[in-house]
Amino acid sequence: KVNEQEADKIVELVREMMMDSSDNKSRPRSIGIISLIGDEQSRLIRGRLLDSCGPEYLARHDVLIGDPPQFQGAERDVVFLSMVCSRENCPTQNQQFHFQRANVALSRARDRIVLVRSIDLADIPSLEDVKVTIIEFVMSANEVINSEVVASPENGADARRPHRKNCFGRE
Fold first, then answer.
1. From CA 141, how far away is CA 44, in angstroms rounded?
2. Which of 14, 16, 122, 129 is deepest in the core (most CB within 10 A)?
3. HEC string of 35-85?
4. Backbone dihedral region of 25: left (phi > 0), alpha (psi from -120 to 50 degrees) or beta?
5. Per-residue pLDDT for the chain (171 aa), expressed as one digit of tens each?
6. Is the CB of residue 31 less than 8 Å from the CB of residue 110?
């Protein structure tokens, strides 16, 4: 499963970050891109980033692209998280392993996580879905921290500075 809109938004944001730092003499920020559903989205984004930025920039920024298990034990300065689903195709993700994957995904950023989504809470059929928890987590963190919202469903993504607390345990 792929979401072209989210892939394009991530490529745009990552390219912008890479180009902004190309004049900077300090260490480039490392970048992670995590797809919440499957590996197809990761492959799509990797191909588009290679075409857009080239392998030199991906290496310079230590870019890692994949699904949550590929990030186990790995951190990056900035992590882009693609929810992949759309209003037309929003499968329920409510099993324990979905919550574990979300916890891994949201705990990989050292400095900032950018949630890229094409859905609103109203588009998610089940309140038990991990996507509800992820969106609410990022939205509440934006309110608490008052960090800039890079984008929203209208323009593609939410951003926040992470904290290292497990927010996805079931009670």
1. 29
2. 14
3. ECCCCHHHHHHHHHHHHHHCHHHHHHCCCEEECHHHHCCCCEEEEEEECCC
4. alpha
5. 999 999 999 999 999 999 887 666 778 999 999 999 989 999 999 999 999 999 999 999 999 999 999 999 999 999 999 999 999 999 999 999 999 999 999 999 999 889 999 999 999 999 999 999 999 988 877 654 433 334 444 444 554 444 433 444 433
6. no
